[in-house]
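ok so I'm stuck.
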Amino acid sequence: MYGVYWLLSSQVQQTEAARRTAEDSARAETQRLRQELAAARAAAAPATQVESLRTQLRAAETRTAELRAALDRAQAALSTQLAAGEARRVAAQADLQRMRDELAAAERRAPSQETIDSLKRAVTAAERQTQNLDAKMRAIRASDFATIAQQDQGAVGLITASFGRDYYNGTGFVITADGYMLTNWHVVADSLHPRADTIWVTMADQSQARYADVVATSQERDLAVIKVRSYQGPYLTAIDWGGTRARQGEPAALIGYPAGSGFARLRSSVVRTSMSAGIISRATEDVIQFDGMTIGGSSGSPLFNADGEVIAVHRAGLPQAPGFALSVPIKHIVAIMPVPLRQRLGIP
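replied:
not stuck anymore, here's the structure
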């Protein structure tokens, strides 16, 4: 949790700046439409033109209100995490200062050299730890996760799969303009069903679901490729197909739908993504361990590095260790991709 708190500490200011920029843009668009509507009325424009402008104005005002609400939610969440992280930072600094004071007092009392050496070693270790934390914080401050969320969350969809009378939720993300999507095998299949009976996908900030079809799966890797029917929308292009962009200790963030449809549609008819940030605590050939909070529904979410590149597909949390999550390096899905899809993506 310490890494989670600190990872987003610098994002409060960035989110506030983004909120002001977005609101200014939305406000300008609304004002322009108001002026056009007033001009049309003054010029006795046809009723259809006036009504069209009035409809556009209402839509712009609705978008402005939704944008303000979304950014306010992000600001509140980041502020809470900042407060918790700041409290821990102050405590760490106070502890270091206490040890320095103890060392100075011991040197004045002239105790045994062994005692002084022991205190010096403790202070040196604490200073080294503080320096390491400062170095990590500089890297974290350079990670603009607010921008990553705003740019990429539109390509992340809520998956609903039916198995008989049972329905389950997961997450997937689109990688092509015509709707190829990556997720987990266990989101679209299980040990009793090689494929779900029906799959629907609802993209971020939308309310309408589209049917999707399974293209390829790997139960061993817990990966799947599906295709959303008649898709036209955003997709992710910065993807670490070579598996070289995940490094232990670096910041990372996950965008998905924790707790599934109920939470994604909380007080809204459209689905909303959630972002969880933390650090890469382990990176191997077969697994990337992410120290950030995830729960059911996050399966299939894209895991981004600090540069905004997708490095893995989130697979599962650890029940025995809340806050630790396991993801599959994105390179492993290449093996099950249809050859034409790999060629389109420029993957050898």
